[in-house]
Amino acid sequence: MRTVALKDRVPLGPLGPLGVLVDPMTWRAAPYLLVSGALGLMWYFVLAITISVSLALTVVWVGVPLAIATVLLWRGGARLERRLQRLAFGVRLADPYRPRPQRGLGAHVQWLLKDPATWRDLGYLLMLLPLGAVEAVVSFAMWMGTGGLLLAPILYPMEQGAGGSGYFVESWSEAWIAGFFGVLLLVLSAYLARGMAWLHGTLATVLLGGGEEERLRASRARGVDAAEAERRRIERDLHDGAQQRLLSVAVDLGRAQSKFDSDPETVRELIAQAHAGTKAAIAELRNLARGIHPAILSDRGLDAALSGLAARAPIRVDVSVELDERPPPAVESIAYFIVAESLANMAKHSAATEASVTVIRDRRGVVVDVWDNGIGGAVIVPGGGLAGLADRAATIDGVLVLHSPMGGPTIVRAELPCEW
Fold it and tell me: What pairs with residue 365 in β-bridges?
């Protein structure tokens, strides 16, 4: 799924000794740091071979497609690294590439080669070798030393029972002292792992996440696309709904006018039809206005508006809104439509029996969670409703995340900043 990050950040804030040991992020970062050197070495050899061969063969036609394949290869590697950054360090990085052209081989080649993100991807993968080598060597030395010291009180009696001497301690007192220093080194190693993770994540954010200009450009482009899609939807709804009804009203009134003197009974029927058509057109316009921006949202805020959505849902939906103050109107509107679309999809596809909507305010902005116990399997497809919601969130540099494994449950989470 393609999203725009709320904030490209490394969530590795300062923690105490106990906190750094129990924080899952520490132990998610440690394995990556150990293998980052191997990853860097692999990418160095792969790129060195493919780039050299493709450049050497550019004198003949076969070198050109090979060079394009090489560019696609390292962009794919950078995409993989963005996913690894999120798993290892919690750094959420959106793909910063410019929009893909609709057609034309030449346009696609230019799109690949003229995008600055393509060359930042290459720079990151080449930087991964020296950076990963340092991380791997330091991590290996620290964790091996930590393991050796911590195991000293356990290995010493085992070696004594086998008739040998300790591998680096000669008495129980030395073994327990080694164990004590092992605990200290464990805390130091955890802090060191977090420090290297912070540095690595920061460099990855700069190179893989794109500059602020690219992020803003992508956000603006998606915002323009979302606004254009909304304009087309309103135009289509007007044409297919209220416009047709008003046209029918005009026809009925025209017929009534022509029969006003000759057939009063038919005139009454035609006026009655026109009256009913007018009321139906008003209802259509009200529904359309509600789809643009519901009045209850402006008047009473998110809590009342979301409660109204829940009341119209076919199953029980629990709503919890915990906001100390009303967020900006744009945030309220996006949150409302995310919940509306999620509940509509749930009713159509999920076979859920219960659902919940939670809205809270944290230090970054407003977080919206929509959960249901349905069958899962939801995906974001281009042009679909959820993709449109991701584009809405992108207009304010927000992020939409979908978690919907087969069998359920489904969770749609939106993180919407209140400042942009």
Answer: 417
Task: Enter the pTM of the model.
Answer: 0.52
Peptide bond into 409 cis (omega under 30): yes
The DSSP annotation for 344-408 comes to: HHIIIII--SEEEEEEEE-SSEEEEEEEE-S-------TTSHHHHHHHHHHTTT-EEEEE--TT-
Closest CA to 121 of 221, 47, 37: 47
What letters, b where the CB count within 10 A reaches 16 and e where it falls short, cover 382-399? eeeebbbbbbbbbbbbbb
pLDDT of 165 > 60? The answer is no
| Rounded (5°) CA angle 62-64-65 | 75
Residue 121 has pLDDT above 80, yes or no: yes
Strand pairing class (365-372; 399-403):
unpaired
Tokens found for residue 227: 């606004």
Q: Are 384 and 346 in contact (CB under 8 A)?
A: no
Per-residue pLDDT tens digits for 199-256? 888 888 888 876 555 555 555 555 556 666 666 666 665 665 666 667 777 777 787 7
